Amino acid sequence: MSRKAQATNLPESSPAADRPFQAAGAIAILVTVCVAQFMLLVDDTIVNVALPSIAADMNLSEADLSWIPNAYLLMFGGFLLIGGRMADLLGRRRVFQISMGSFVLASIIAGLAQSSEVLIGARGAQGLAGAFMSPAALSILLATFTAEKERTRALAAWSSLTALGAATGLLLGGALTELVDWSWIFWINLPIGIAAMVAAARYVPVGGRHELARAPGLSSALLGTAALLTFVYTIVETAANPWTSARTVGGFAISALLAIAFLVSESRSSEPLVPVAVIKRPNISLGNVYMFLAAAGLLAMFFFVTLYMQNVLGYSPFKAGAAWLPFSITLGIFSGITAKLIERFSAIPFLTIGALVATAGMLQIAQIDAQSGYLTTLVPAFVTVAAGFGLAFVPILGIATGGVEQRNSGIASGLLTSSQQIGGAVGIAVLVTIATTTTNNEMALGAERLDALVNGFHAAFYVQTGILAAAAIVGLLIGVFARESGKLEGLPVPA
């Protein structure tokens, strides 16, 4: 048997299996998991620009149409914790391949759907598969690249996908819908998913079933998942039910009660879903807060700026998607630069610096009006925001997953992805309410529709600016912890 074959068949619990593979093997693993994550992030936004075409073909109401993206978000956000734990329990490669296969199957069904019920069900199945696939993919990366320098570079590639995937989804969704047919936004997942499954079978180590002493308690798993599902469902329904309505307040109350019951169950469990050793680490708890705020600001920015370009500037879906290319390019460049800088300097300051740069870019976006030019206004703002996130995302991924045992890497990855997904959902839901309320009030006072729309966007952008400034403060708190402890899970810290 060749050395590559021997390495590929090592159980995940073996020390040798957690060492980085040499050259081609390690790169193949990195490409495999990054492609999978990229596909999931593209699916976060690719559907949005196709919704009008889907509504026309299926004669859907606005309420039915909203569930095409919301079903994906609900299942993805609701099952991430248990998905991360299953990667630890059943083996990373096994969970990755099963969930990837399920995602591909759900994509086939979505592409063939002739009714809203089938399409919404397929989108929910995609989200469920993604909830298992994403933490498995990140834990594979963390287990493969254990040396500090190599892990930093691998996380740089991973982090650049966070916003790049969302921006690419807008571009692809617009292009496929205009040039081919909306069903191709789902068909495109087939070759990507099949290639990732084949690569995983060849390069990713076979996972064992003995990373945990036993499965997490059923009550904890059910309560934790129910709390997340209720929370995300309540958020996505705020589009139809005001934040102060009895239904919304009641939904959050039920979610809080389920969360309390989950914590009680966890405290009594010998094998908790989320081990105390994981969440008690300040780098993980604060890192997840940082990611929640950053995702709330970033994903809401994609949502509102895309609406602004289409509804105010009159861009087509394809043109609106293509307009994000400077953002994607800048993000990739600065993620690579940050990875190099972290190898020589402290990782900690980049959290605050990155958030402040992104805040400055958001302030630029908040100055737009109905006559703003693309090259003179939007591109400089996109480049500034992308540079900020490029500086911040590489260190936060390392910090928020650093120091956990390999047996808990899946749940640490699940926590971070939960913060990203739910942060984005909360950010969009809250800011939609703010923008809509502002627009309606302006129109009630006699403002023209276009001016009222712009003022609503302004209100949302200013709140997003505050959210990113709050992320900068959390970055400072992480720096305080680093200085007091003298270290931060192996990452260099300021003197």
Walk me through this protein's architecture.
There is one protein chain. The chain contains 20 helices and no strands. By secondary structure, it is mostly helical. Helix 7 packs antiparallel against helix 8.
Mean pLDDT: 81
Give the helix/strand class.
mainly alpha
- Overall spatial form: globular
- Indicate the CATH architecture of the largest domain: Up-down Bundle
The count of strands amounts to 0
Count of discrete structural domains: 3
Write the layout of secondary structure elements.
Layout: H1 3-8, H2 23-45, H3 51-58, H4 62-78, H5 80-90, H6 92-112, H7 116-144, H8 148-179, H9 184-187, H10 189-203, H11 218-236, H12 246-268, H13 276-279, H14 282-311, H15 317-322, H16 325-344, H17 349-365, H18 374-401, H19 409-444, H20 449-485
Offer a few descriptive terms.
single chain, 495 residues, mainly alpha, Growth Hormone, Chain: A, 20 helices, disordered N terminus, disordered C terminus
Concise summary:
The protein is mainly alpha-helical and 495 residues long. Helices cover 78% and strands 0% of the residues. The chain has 3 domains: 1-206, Growth Hormone, Chain: A, CATH 1.20.1250; 217-272; 274-495, MFS general substrate transporter like domains (Growth Hormone, Chain: A), CATH 1.20.1250.20.
